[in-house]
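Subject: Protein record for review, amino acid sequence with backbone structure tokens
How to read it: Take the token row as a discrete description of the fold.
Enclosed: The protein record, placed directly beneath this head.
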Amino acid sequence: MYDPGYFFLNLMFGLVFAMFFIGWIPAVIAKSKGRSFWPWWFYGGALFIVALIHSLCIKPEFEFEKEEAEDIGCNRTKKGIAHLTWKCSCGEVNIRSADKCRICSRPRPLRELKSALAG
């Protein structure tokens, strides 16, 4: 016998499974651009088309030249987001927005201020 409730239940489980399976596509794309995987996975499962377009349009978090990264130093946090830093002559690594060293209080070198203003 045909049971419409059973058909509806199977359809719902299938749709939920498919939504979370296809949510991996925008999540992997966003992860390759330096974003967090799990929020993008849920976003991709709930709104696949929107999340796919969004993940393709976002800019990578790691947008800087190799020389610039070596020049001012590059730290990666536990979440994988790049934070540009600068290294003081005393050896301390400071965040990019700091104007002076947090250890020796020396001002930030002029070449580093120019690169911060340019980027």
